[in-house]
Design brief:
Chain lengths: 439, 231
Amino acid sequence: MIPPTTPRKSATFDDYTLSEIRRAAATGIYDIRGAGAKRKVPHFDDLLFLGASISRYPLEGYRERCGTNVFLGSRYASKPIELKIPITIAGMSFGSLSANAKEALGRGASAMGTSTTTGDGGMTPEERTHSSLLVYQILPSRYGMSPDDLRRADAVEIVVGQGAKPGGGGMLLGQKITERVAGMRVLPVGIDQRSACRHPDWTGPDDLQIKIEEVREITDWEKPIYVKVGASRPYYDTALAVKAGADVVVLDGMQGGTAATQEVFIENVGLPTLSSIRPAVQALIDLGMHRKVQLIVSGGIRNGADVAKALALGADAVSIGTAALVALGDNDPALEAEYRKLGTTAGAYDDWHEGRDPAGITTQDPDLFKRLDPIKAGRRLANYLAVMTLEAQTIARACGKSHLHNLEPEDLVALTIEAAAMARVPLAGTSWIPGGGSF
Amino acid sequence: MSADRAEIVDLATMPLRQLNLALHRLRPDTNQTLWRIANPRGRHSVAVGVDVPVTIEIDGHVGYYCAGMNKQATVIVNGNAGVGVAENIMSGTVHVKGDASQSAGATGCGGTLIIDGNASARCGISMKGVDIIVRGSVGHMSAFMAQAGSLVVLGDAGESLGDSIYEARLYVRGKVQGLGADCVEKPMTDHHKAKLARKLTTAGIAGIDIGQFRRYGSARRLYHFHVDNVY
């Protein structure tokens, strides 16, 4: 008898790929899901801090101060904001998230002295009440756009794109367009709501400059104005945002989440976060604007090490979305039985657009969203933010830094050639920084 | 407007910032209810974010976003207006005596925008409740993704009128070069004729035969995401 070979599955046509081909063949429509890129890309895990040694003094871990605050908007705004920690909550709409989830985000962030951000759909009274610092987004759809809310906000963020879908618009399926969501967006209840990919009243960087001026005039030059871009051409987008008059540039890598977009878009468009930071920072340096125009980086920030690495590469702050939702209770293994009923498993649930979230976060179903206690969930978020901050401080002190902003690329090495090239730090144990040249 | 009661602002000498700040500081019961702005010279963001029931008359051409996000005020432009005039208007009236550039009344949530001349492309884009009346013609992609409110065009409309429209109502007296995705002609009932007549009257437009207008709106085929709706 000839010994049989082990059945061999294709690396190219793996199980997920085969299932997607079958799904596409059955439906004729692309797959939509939430969250960010799930493929493995070079990330902060591929960097290491060197720590202090004979040539560097560390700071005493539990005694010596390591500052964490950051001022945003000092370029033009007469009322810049100060975050106590350099970790903000990214824009997520009421509509994509439940009111309880938005309240929990506000409670958690406020407890730690940081900001939350509205989203595509306007500002709810709940999030204004529970967020001591609230960033109001101006998106292409302008759903819920109001000058009153603009004046109520602590900062304004003009959203050009996001990391999950640079160049793409949005879609909020009808299951989540309840009477309240529809009312805020001036849409019929229950329809699948589309969000435009381009702004309705400006095109290109010269127009953006005029648009920013208008927003400044409306808000009497008080509010910091951010410009958010998805990571695709970070050097040029950052330079153009600075030229257009932004106080803050928000740069979102492809691991950054979304409420709903085509899977093919999420996984195949845009840059990994790691590869986008240095070009953006270089643009700020070239313009003499590093630390004058602040850079907020988002997309796959999970722990204090990621925070420290992003800041060491030159960011002023980071922003979290997916991680914040997990802290609230998203994808909790305790809900495994319910995830199974939805055909998925804890840790993989990403059909946020369908509104059936058993954790009560990405839903407008009253029976589901009442499961989320905004006070307890807010506390979990505050705890998580506190841990991230302590972790980042621990690393910074070990590198001899008295403020997180004193971390620098020289504190880092890379574990892979790819990460070394992207982060522009040496491959560990060498002095070799691959790549180079212009961006 | 009697000139002796008006606040006179000459933008040749007063910085725009000073004008907008003065307008923002007006209290609802202000007696400075008449403002006359000279020498706008195409300046952007003139009289933006006003939220009091005053009348602001601008003598000359304005640049981008004049009367942006207007609430309550009546803003009259005795000239042409640049991109995004009355963008996101909430209430009040904006009246352009000349022509308007692209994206006039974009995302407007309420109030009225009257353009005596022509409006360029994307007039009423993503409108959310504003009433826009254009005595002349409008350019292509007007009322794109228009959600609510009405666009009344006494002249012609360019290509792709009402593309991806939601619940806004479009009335065109002249020719429509082409309808956009999901935009269809709908019956002009007596109810619609009466509503249109009221809008014209409110805008001070008389002597127009309502029977010459045709009505357009959403076929509502894009309201649910489906393979057959992909363009």
